[in-house]
């Protein structure tokens, strides 16, 4: 039975996809209009067809929402790359086989992702919009955040460059404004995506104590991270937590 690839890609792979996609294309659009057609003949994951120099054991797992633009996601990756050159990124669109509708069940895939995060050791959160991060409203992303907490993986939050000016203004004026905006996100109402999701499995997951614990903790992970941001605002490094 298939398992998600443990291999990651260099940031150049993701930058190429941004250049090939129309302006403002979402990650979902890129998946179904670029990745799937390019891998139809082989029916393999995109990563499996790349040159070996662009691929290596993943060292950073990207947690993002498919509704965000790929450009914003890759902007966050580029910022991370400047601080951690040579990173191999685990990005679901290119590292998962997009020709398989399901592995076995949502429950099994969740466990696979948790083990991926454990092995990789670092989670990059795409914090957009900065005042209402979409990742805190998506069930898969919350599971990824919770898994990172559970396995003690490093969690790094990055805000897209285009949002940093507004973020710095808000944080510089009153840090509590930033914290309150983020904490208003109703993590407990998180939804699964419309595609490739076992909704029945997610409903069962939502009834477990593990899921309730994950939503409770994920609701504060962004807020805790912002504690270091006001000082960073003054040095132009407000994107990291």
Task: Describe what you observe in this structure.
- The termini are far apart.
- The strands form two sheets. The protein has a four-stranded parallel beta sheet with strand order 4-3-5-6.
- With 241 residues, the chain is of the alpha/beta class.
- The protein is built from eleven helices and six strands.
- Helix 1 packs antiparallel against helix 3 (70-83), helix 5 (106-120) packs across helix 6 and helix 6 (139-150) crosses helix 10 (209-225).
- 50% of the residues lie in helices and 9% in strands.
- Residues 194-203 and 225-241 have low confidence and may be disordered.
- The radius of gyration is 17 Å and the shape is globular.
- Helix 6 links the parallel strand 5 and strand 6.
The percent of residues in helical segments reads 40-55%
What share of the residues does DSSP label as strand, in percent? 5-15%
Question: Based on helices, strands and strand pairing, what is the structural class?
Answer: alpha/beta
Number of strands: 6
Question: What attributes does this structure have?
Answer:
alpha/beta, 241 residues, disordered C terminus, two-stranded antiparallel ribbon, four-stranded parallel β-sheet
């Amino acid at each position: 039975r298939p398992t998600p690839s443990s291999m990651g890609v260099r940031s150049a792979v993701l930058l190429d996809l941004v250049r090939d996609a129309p302006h403002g294309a979402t990650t979902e659009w890129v998946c179904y209009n670029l990745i799937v057609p390019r891998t139809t003949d082989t029916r393999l994951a995109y990563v499996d067809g790349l040159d070996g120099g662009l691929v290596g054991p993943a060292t950073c797992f990207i947690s993002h929402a498919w509704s965000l633009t790929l450009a914003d996601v890759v902007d966050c990756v580029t910022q991370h790359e400047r601080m951690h050159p040579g990173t191999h990124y685990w990005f679901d669109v290119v590292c998962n086989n997009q020709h398989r509708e399901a592995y076995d069940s949502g429950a099994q895939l969740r466990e696979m992702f948790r083990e991926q995060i454990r092995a990789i050791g670092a989670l990059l959160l795409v914090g957009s919009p900065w005042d209402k991060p979409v990742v805190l409203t998506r069930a898969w992303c919350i599971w990824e955040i919770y898994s990172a907490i559970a396995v003690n993986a490093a969690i790094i939050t990055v805000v897209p460059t285009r949002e940093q000016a507004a973020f710095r203004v808000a944080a510089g004026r009153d840090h509590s404004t930033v914290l309150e905006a983020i904490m208003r996100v109703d993590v407990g109402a998180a939804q699964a995506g419309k595609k490739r999701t076992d909704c029945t499995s997610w409903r069962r997951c939502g009834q477990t104590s593990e899921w309730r614990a994950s939503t409770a903790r994920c609701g504060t992970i962004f807020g805790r991270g912002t504690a270091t941001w006001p000082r960073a605002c003054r040095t132009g490094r407000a994107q990291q937590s």
